[in-house]
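Batch manifest line 508
LIGAND: adenosine-5'-triphosphate
JOB: complex structure
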Amino acid sequence: MSHPTPAPAPALHAEGIVKRFGRTLALDGVGLTVAPGESHALVGRNGAGKSTLVSIVTGLSRPDAGSVAFAGRPAPAPGDRAGWQSTVACVHQKSMTVPELTVAENLFLNRFGPGRLIGWRRLRQRAGELLAGYGVDVDPRTRAQDLTVEQRQFVEIARALSFGARLIVLDEPTARLDARGIQRLFTRLRELQRQGVAFVYISHHLQEVYELCTAVTVYRDARQVLTATVAALPENELVAAMTGDTGGAARRRPATSGPASASASAEPVLRTERLALRGAFAPLDLAVRPGEVLGLAGAAASGSTAIGETLAGMRRASTGRITVGGTEVRPGSVPDALKAGIGYIPEDRHRQGLIPGRSVAENATLTVADRLGPLGTVRPARTREFARALISSLDIRTSGPGQPVSDLSGGNQQKVVVARALARGPRALIAIRPTAGVDVRSKDALLAVVRRVADEGGAVVIVSDELDDLRVCDRVLALFHGRVVADFAHGWSDRDLVAAMEGVGERP
Ligand SMILES: Nc1ncnc2c1ncn2[C@@H]1O[C@H](COP(=O)(O)OP(=O)(O)OP(=O)(O)O)[C@@H](O)[C@H]1O
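JOB STATUS: finished
ARTIFACT:
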């Protein structure tokens, strides 16, 4: 008599997980079960508890209650570094590699115990073999800091697999990849799935969930509210589970006032004349009028980000000038750009955005400190009051304005960065991928707030390759290899814009 083969134990089974941070209940008895070879999406609004769960199932923090098992075995003990390394890895948005070390060194970091020395040449050779074995085409002598985001992610995945991990958590892996990079990543992930590697996939891009994942779990307000097969779940039901809206859960689109809001005759608020940055973008003449939102669309390497950073004073142009309201702005100086009325939402909130130990209120009002009290003194009550208004208009999930900003979830930190840029009432706002890491529903609220800067007579430049970001624009310039290759009026088609961003029809 033959017995049916028992189903293999799940790659991950977490159950009844509770985690508190002081008064915040971050996880309230949640679970997550991932089958071997499955790509399982974990989704939810900002602050829902996704990262907290990830830190528990990767051994970085301990739950207050609940159990975690991998392939039917209990999780390694808290300090058992080697045990965790050979079980699970997380590819974060922030690099976990050591930037100054080479790929080979990063791959073999902590791998050899004391007394197990290995020569550099042998190390490089083994690193080369390892990468080739996983189909990763990177020179092991490259310093980690010189890798592209895509290469760095592949190196981190190869490293985890070489330790024997069969479960990999990907935390917004596509946030900094262009369309082709995303497809290459997905191809690689599908190959690995076929070999039995399982993935937990965290993303605010629901179309990616539908493209890559077979199962999805939704957390909302620290609770697990749904686990379903992706193919059987319509997107509006998924969004409804995330937001808790019942009935008409259709996504709100931000009200776009369209080109009519920009008065064609008015003098531009923000203008550039022959502005150029060698190696990044060719001479550029821009004129953004009051009420106008201009989109600069392009992959990160297209020069669009460099233009945004130059406008904000982060980088100094090689030639040309920038004016706000007809007055020239001193180049390459953030304080001077601020003084001229330029507000800036940077892409990388970790490096350019926030002061971690300070409160939400202080971070949100850093640029207005001089306005909140006489002679440079900041009165806490006023800071808080000001911050409270921003917290509510941007729907920032926090216990209050006094909470340290580092305690906020990633998406909520990004909203604080936006709040800070808006706090001064900028005449011209430069926003670089403003909705990165922000959940589906908050995206709309955030873009509406950005749009309002224009509606109140300001000029806005949104640098992004996200179509949702670009839809609020009155006009979109597509960039490729540092040049404007197309100019789209309101009402463009997704296909045409994507083709222009990818340089279709352009010579490389
Ligand atoms: N170290 C901490 N101290 C205090 N509170 C924290 C800490 N880490 C997380 N939290 C809180 O726990 C809750 C869950 O946060 P978590 O980072 O897990 O959310 P998330 O779902 O990953 O959100 P996002 O989509 O924005 O990344 C939030 O309310 C957050 O403020």
